[in-house]
Amino acid sequence: MADKKAPGVRPRRTPQRNGKTGPLFAAVDLGTNNCRLLVAEPRGKTFRVVDSHSQIARLGEGLHETGRLSDAAIDRAIDALQNIRKKIKQHGVGRVRCIATEACRKADNGAEFIRRVHAETGLTFKIIGSKEEARLATIGCHDLIEPDAASVLVVDIGGGSTELSWVNADMARANGFRGLLEQAPILSWTSLPLGVVTLSEAFSHFDEGEGYPHMLDHARKVLNAWTGIEQVREAMGATGAHMIGTSGTVTCLAGVHLKLDRYRRDRVDGSWLSREESAATIQLLRDLGLDGRATLPTIGEERAGLMLSGCAIVEAVWEAFPAGRLRVADRGLREGLLLSMMYGPKKSKTRRRGRRGRKPAAGSATGDHEGDHNDG
Q1: % pLDDT > 70, the chain
Q2: Residue 210: which pLDDT band, with cuts at 50, 70 and 90?
Q3: Spatial strand order in the sheet of 242-246
Q4: H or E stretch including 328?
Q5: CA distance 82 to 103
Q6: How many whole angstroms from its chain centre is CA 278?
């Protein structure tokens, strides 16, 4: 696939670099369910993907009950990060930024886990706040905003939380790419304590058929408690307003709706789902049951058990906002992170007295946090 002109659009993975054109950058996202890597090289205002990797680690498994990351979950995550570390070294990546999200934010032993990751893999992670997570996801999929849209709601469904960002689309276009990186035009946002892992675990004592209505009702209540919901609902009722869904749940829904015999990013990314199409696909997944969903080529066994909790969140979002369409984004946080690294405003570097000539800390080559923002 040829490089796209729009910033952040991710071309098909190319296994080898055709000539040395610049330094490589890598973004690592450690979430509640997945651990993801994206390696890319700058291309104008966008980038070319060199390699990508995703491994389900289920880091947040059991967190809802215990408040801690379990030993088994930690072992799975470190195994996934060891694989990612190998890929980073194989490619000779020059700049890496590693971020951790909801599971590490909530866990009592989140900081302890991050220290262990550094000791065993050399990767230095930063636990980012939910506001920063929303900002990066918005940057990552901003070029999916339709030209006639005044308002857009970015819906980022994760394993442990769901971030909603109401974006001023007119301002995003007017300020351009650089302006977006300096200050994303997010008018209102929230981080909901709803994720595919946490919601599924909270209602795991029900069987599937009985549990789905309970998950949906809970998602509705959490969503309607957002203090800014009425203002966003009014804005999303305007002509041209639409949602952008960035998550495994949404891309899987699109793959099933499109009846793909294998997952194809070129068909899924940027595609559209109406509310009726979404509802029909969700009903199909409910009717198939766990074993039936596992046979679908765009879902498989690893995702089958978490699809209905994600569907409950999607259905609650559709009910809350009258937008006629949802645009599917196979992009988000990692892409936003890469764009911020490559083209975002740089922090001025100040030399501290007494540190001249001192060697960098172990693993610092894979823990570059220049330009990061954090809301706590």
Answers
A1: 86
A2: very high
A3: 186-192, 162-168, 151-157, 242-246, 325-329, 272-274
A4: strand 325-329
A5: 19
A6: 20
Instruction: Please tell me the distance from the alpha carbon of residue 225 to that of residue 154, in angstroms, as a whole number.
Output: 18
- For the segment 92-112, what is each residue's pLDDT rounded down to a tens digit? 999 999 999 999 999 999 999
3-state SS, 260-297, equals: CCCCCHHHHCCCEEEHHHHHHHHHHHHHHHHHHHHCCC
Instruction: Tell me the residue length of the chain.
Output: 376
Rounded to an integer, the average pLDDT of 192-209 is 93
Reading phi first (left if > 0) and then psi (alpha if -120 to 50, else beta), residue 2 is in beta
Instruction: Give the pairing of strands 242-246 and 186-192.
Output: unpaired
Please determine, for residue 180, whether its predicted confidence score (pLDDT) is greater than 70.
Answer: yes
The Cα–Cα gap between 319 and 327 comes to 16
Residue 208 has a pLDDT of 87
Angle between helices 208-224 and 307-320 (to 10 degrees): 40
Return the closest-CA partner of residue 344 out of 368, 364, 317, 361: 368
Output DSSP code: residue 357: T
